[in-house]
Amino acid sequence: MIAHPGGSRRVLMKGNEAIAEAAIQAGCDAYFGYPITPQAELLEWMARRMPEEGRAFIQAESELGAINMGLGAAATGARVLVSSSSPGISLMAEGMSYMAGSEVPIVLINVMRGGPGLGSIQPSQSDYFQAVKGHGHGDYRVPVFAPSSIGEAMELIATAFEVAERYRTPVMLLADGILGQAMEPVDLRFRRPERIEAAWALTGADGRPPRVVRSLHLVPEDLEEHNLHLQEKFRAVAEHEVRWAGEQLEDAELVIVAYGTAARVARTAIARARADGLKVGLFRPISLWPFPSALLAALAERVRGMLVVELSAGQMVEDVRLAVEGRVPIAFDGRTGGMVPSPDEVVEALRELDTTGLAARRSRRARRRQPGPVSGPEHTHERTPLAASESGHEALSIFGDDAWMPLWYTSPVPSRRGGKR
Amino acid sequence: MSAVAAAPRVVYERPAVLTDVSTRYCPGCGHGVVHRLLAEVIDELGVAGRTIAVAPVGCSVFAYEYLSLDWCEAPHGRAPAVATGIRRVRPDAFVLTYQGDGDLAAIGTGEIVHAAARGELITTIFVNNGIYGMTGGQMAPTTLLGQKTTSSPTGREASLAGYPVPMTEMLAVLPGVAFAGRGSVADPSAIGKTKAMIRKACEAQLRGEGFAIVEVLSNCPVGWGMTAPESIRHLKEVVVGTYPLGVLVDRTGGKRNAGAPHPAPSARATRSGATAQEG
Known about the structure:
Chain A is 38% helix and 17% strand. Chain A contains 13 helices and 17 strands.
């Protein structure tokens, strides 16, 4: 428990609990959830802390109940968090579609586990398609942010509330079982986004015309107009909310594209590959939708190949291919079912890409390569290059030697110690 | 005498929250009567300005066009969960759900049972016409045995489709339920009694006594394949045999939890736990 954040700057926290506390400090008014591994500690933390703060907590009868309680609370303008893991997220798909359609801001966390079906309780990234291509029915998109460390998840939860309220949209935080279950030292830095006047929220029609929060537009012309409005909003999100991080891209000839836990593995693999003489960089999408396609396309102009690493059978790799449009070979390395690729396995895939995959194109591409930094839009976060690890090969953790280091923070983020207003 | 007789007196007028539009309901449908009863009670209690109502999926999906209130649309069956979310962050609101029998007794059974079990301070108007009207007259869990519908073309058979579900009786056994009753729109007498129950169910919420539900037996002339008068006769003579009218449980007014203080809500959130109804 964080009794006095000012006292100790870094504490060891479990991911689920750190995310939950960060949500509370970000001003979450209500939390609704249902027990499911590997996110149950998030629910448990909220069960204890939300009543302490005088805020709403319900352990719902199902994920259907939880997401719809979220809908109701958020429709009144409250800041609402709902969390679950993969099978539960499938049940919440209906509610997500309704909230996208009726423009209700909410933050939903998916602590992904292996699928399909009941699958396993081990970490996975196999819900990428579900998260970024839409959960429920209808033409809609939802911003999806994928943290790579517990510290980053704590910051992104505040960002998620901010983006949700700015665009009146559900936002998903896509984590996985490792981020939920692992413990890392985290900085107790919290951020509470300013509240925006919700001139649409249901508060009772006292002294003003009634308001209706709805997704129903039975007349086709009306629904098309509503859809055009939504698409306009999605374009604005795509323009302004792209987030990514890069490492050692300046001299990179090969790039690993990975998010979340896979990026942690990739980072260790890159240190080892560089020790072996391969010039490899990391491109880490943080917003999975909007996907940093333009940045990847620009990067593809000056590298020889890309390796996509995922804890899945290959989902984000499709978006990478769409972004790169055949400019360079794209290789894939992934494990499924709760298995995590080892750094050595990733290094092996890099070597294969370097030798076989690129042999035919190497000389031609090398002549055309144009060095220079990748430039991107605002709201990007490029990390300064790290020195290659000397102890990478001896690392015991799958995170390698950087297990303690949040991947994202490049410079101090303005923090409010204690997080209170 | 003549002076008294000359003074105009309003004996009947449109309730303030009932909008002045034609409904989309079929001729003879009972929904309009139920809307009016609810509108009258909301006016009488003076809670229109703080009411947040939850509309279902089904024939009454457009309820927000007929009652001039803040409304939230709910996915099919989920109205009690949506209402729960509203209630927990808006302790001062008056929270209603208006649901049909497909919504409440089929797809939404989980949500209604647990909202009632938690004793959520919401009032549910449950309109039971024993059929899925909007989708073309299919069998509902509430459809009578032997009743022909488009999905039970030879009549509902218990061996294939089970028995009518007495939802309100089932809910009445839960301690979180402050009031549960069943009325009907079959005739003026029944309508008057139904209004009294709706008022009681709303007052139960205002007094913080727990979850309250009024099931209103209604007709569906089109779905039942009857004229409007035939459907009313059927309602009075046949439907009430399966669904008896009357108060099913009344724990209001100190009949339970006498004097039990209701936890004071905080600024944005009300009861922090699920135990508030246990005195």
